[in-house]
Amino acid sequence: MHSVVERELELTLVLSPERSIPVPARLSYRTDDPYAVHISFHVGSDSPVNWTFARELLVEGVFRPCGDGDVKVWPTKVDGRGVILMALSSPDGDALLEASAAVVSAWLERTLRAVPPGTESEQLGIDEGLAELLAPSLGRVDELWLEGPAAVPPSDESSEREN
User: Fold this and answer.
1) Cα angle 68, 34, 24; round to 5
2) What pTM value is reported for the model?
3) Pick from 24, 25, 26, 28: which is nearest to 5 by CA?
């Protein structure tokens, strides 16, 4: 069974050193997508903006500057309080967002309890899927194997080539 760890919060979109605006957002983590975190901005609007990036990036960004490319995360202090800054870049533009370090850290702690670091691949079920694929079955595949290629109906591609 998969679970979701969510947290609604208000981020601050930093427009300039003197000007910023609040942005409602939702942090989401799904155990069926264990390597990623999802952030939706403008929650409740007709067109929310969604970003997905590595959970590890956000975890590291709580402690030190990190990130390369489209997402950069780093901790800092603003007016004496701990905040996490996220710089997001896309073809549509750039954004600098500020979040409470305490809120983000508490949410991340919940994700780390749900799926501890190093156990993410277990959530994906890759081993079980491979075992199922490689295990002998007594189903239709064995029947086709025993009957030979004549038992397999031609695909659309092979029909086109013959014509």
Assistant:
1) 70
2) 0.72
3) 28
pLDDT digits (tens, 9 = 90+) for 1-21: 789 999 999 999 999 989 999
Amino acid at 116: P
Q: Which two tokens stand for residue 112?
A: 């780390």
Which amino acid is it at 52? Answer: T
Write the CB contacts of 40 (distance below 8 Å, at least 6 apart in sequence). Answer: 25, 26, 28, 48, 49, 50
Q: Residues of the chain whose pLDDT is less than 70?
A: 43-44, 123-133, 136-163
Question: Is residue 85 within 8 Å of 97, Cβ to Cβ?
Answer: yes
